[in-house]
Specification:
By secondary structure, this protein is an all-alpha fold. It has one domain (6-100). Helices cover 89% and strands 0% of the residues. The protein has helices spanning 6-34, 39-68, 70-100. Helix 1 (6-34) packs antiparallel against helix 2. The longest helix is centred in the C-terminal third of the chain and has 31 residues, at 70-100.
């Protein structure tokens, strides 16, 4: 968003926000499948941890932005999504290995 003109920056901000928010329901369903007899407890744990951890991390990210600037902080945080992509690739390959056996 920081590196694009205002219209395209806002467009991609909304698009990425949609994709990030859409993963929440998938995580909740996966946790309910792990413990189907305690599905409401697992939903509350998943939502509580995700909101709690994100709230704590926003404090840290805000402190970093105060030190090095908003541009470099947002550029660095956007690079963290590449690590998430790597984790998804590893999990996807691990899932294929368990279903084929």
């Amino acid at each position: 968003m920081v590196n694009l003109p205002s219209f395209w920056g806002l467009f991609f901000l909304a698009l990425f926000g949609f994709f990030i928010a859409s993963s929440t329901s998938v995580n909740i369903i996966l946790s309910q499948e792990i413990a189907p007899e305690q599905s409401s407890f697992m939903s509350s744990i998943m939502m509580g941890f995700s909101w709690g951890i994100s709230g704590l991390l926003m404090t840290l990210i805000g402190a970093i932005a105060d030190r090095i600037g908003l541009y470099w902080t947002l550029t660095g945080v956007s690079g963290l999504s590449l690590f998430g992509l790597l984790f998804v690739a590893v999990l996807r390959n691990d899932d294929r290995a368990t279903t084929n056996n």
